[in-house]
# Entry
Amino acid sequence: MLNVKRLAYILCVVLAVSLAGCSSKKKKEPQPMKLEKLTQEVKLRKEWSTSVGKGQGKLWNTLTPAVDGDRIFVADVKGKVVALDRFSGKRQWQKKLKAQVSGGVGAGSGLVVLGTLSGDVIALDSTTGNELWRVNVASEVLSAPATNGDVVVVQTQDDRLIALEADTGQRRWIYENTPALLTLRGSSAPLITPYVVYAGLSSGKVIAVELERGLPIWEQRVAMPSGRTELERMVDIDGQLLLKNSVLYVAAYQGKVAGLDEETGRILWQRDASSYVGVGQGFGNAYTSLEAGVVESIDERSGTAMWSNEKLLRRKLSGPAVFSSYIAVGDVEGYLHLLSQVDGRFVSRTRIDKKGLRVQPLVVGGWLYVYGNGGKLVALTIK
# Structure
């Protein structure tokens, strides 16, 4: 469990993000860069929208929606879980859990899985919303559990990976890791395949673990602590990992953005970066939202920047999502920005939730789903 001193550090880092706010209560944090007017080159169609309770809540939660088949599942911090038809937005069921949700949502193979601040992992039937099982893993769960139908894997705040039987919740194995002394609040969600689970750790490492017995396959460091203070030495992988075409994409805070070989962990390319959100990929490029508010396109062959958009500085960006020929990214004031994959110019902007957009947009089959901090869930397509 976190001690009080460490928790205070984490909360300070979260509130400031840039770390400047930890030095003095009187010192004002720099304001987000003002948005320039733009010509809407691309028109978005709002297919439907709905409100989901309290949304992300006051803590730095990243409660991501999940799509399985024709349904989208979403939860709020107070334990409200909703299943909707992803094309019409029609509610199919709603469940109120007696728990404070901090890790969610994972979905697949008939299950909806969530984690809580008290360390519970909860599995629901995806068709009815009925609770199937609930297991305590003795530590906060700050990211969505993952399932392949055979096993549910959860990553705890103290960097343990725990595999639970999907049908009963019984523990299959536990993989211990030593967490960093100081971390950002949050953790990367495990990424699961039929035989392997990948995870990003607070130590700046990515690991691959065999699913059947929990045996290590490989580990790779993408961030190396450096500096004289604990704050300067803090490295963390909080953003969602992405696996595409046998390449595992990862971004680390005060580290690198990199592409790793799926089977060996070998670094295929890398670039110095500081990011606490996920990575997008398309057109042979990787896309990342840097801590400072820069959106960057990286050539996967050379690791060099193809373009950088610096007009969203200090806007605390979400992870980028590839949507058609564009990059979708949210900001602290609730605006969704579309950027061209070719040159990074803005092509569209719309405001989704005045309380901000922290969660990486979700793209499924030509539909874009955006979940705001205040609980607004919107489905968009391109006109």
Q: What stands out?
A: Helices lie at 4-16. The chain has a mean pLDDT of 91. Residues 180 and 203 are 5 Å apart (CA to CA). The two ends are 49 Å apart (CA to CA).
